[in-house]
Amino acid sequence: SLSLSPSLVSLRLSRDCVSTSNLFLPVFSHLMGMFYRTIRMVESGIKPVYVFDGKPPDMKSGELAKRNERRSEAEKQLAQAQEAGDSENVERFNKRLVKVTKQHNEECKTLLTLMGIPYLEAPCEAEASCAALVKSGKVYGTATEDMDGLTFGTTILLRRMTASEAKKLPIQEFHLNKILQETGLSQEEVRKRLSLFIDLCISLGCDYSLSLSLCLCVSV
Fold first, then answer.
1. Comparing C-alpha atoms, which of 47, 96, 59 is closest to residue 210?
2. Model pLDDT for residues 132-153, shown as the tens digit of each residue
3. CA–CA separation, 103 and 171 (whole Å)
4. pTM recorded for the entire structure
5. Residues of the chain above pLDDT 90, percent
6. Residue 81: which of 67, 97, 66, 68 has the closest Cα?
7. Using one digit for the tens of pLDDT, what is the confidence trace for 60-82?
8. In the structure, how many helices (H) and strands (E) does the chain have?
9. 157 beta partners
10. Which of 51, 84, 106, 149 could bridge across to 154 with cysteines, CB 3.0–4.6 Å?
11. Pair 156, 176: CB distance under 8 Å
12. Residue 156 to residues 3, 101, 173, 189: CA-CA distances in angstroms?
């Protein structure tokens, strides 16, 4: 994840930056992707602060187990596609198997150090640390594709910050206060009932618990 200040932001290394085009050669695509994306932000007057994920919490073990199952299934489907000579599905399943490793992270940290760009390693989830940076006024917002940044309390969340320039996707900016005000609550009620928003997000599904098949919200 990435944190941004009025010019600063918080970012996470995305697996989209890592290529699997040739598993027998060193992979540098994550470094190239980070280098050019960072240069683009700096040239636009944005000062990024990269935040790397720490150790996942124990309560996330169920979600991690599911991801491992999906990965095993993708490996089987990749083998079948390779055997059938289906190049389209080979590419598709290869993308699903891309995984950001500790080595990728360490190489990116070295690159950021050489570029003079600050970074930190979160004790746990990167989005939680990004939200803390935003709430303390040290950075402007959190740049991540995961909307749980809002649940962690970041007041401003930006998506598509690291999208490829070729895609020409506009950056999406979400303000937590504006989202809560859409509920029709007054500002005072919004402050008091932020916990309701968090409960709603958890009920709709998150990495730490099962989602409810039917959710009915009642204001009391």
1. 59
2. 999 999 999 999 888 888 989 8
3. 29
4. 0.73
5. 25
6. 97
7. 666 667 777 777 887 788 888 88
8. 9, 7
9. 142, 174
10. 149
11. yes
12. 10, 28, 7, 19
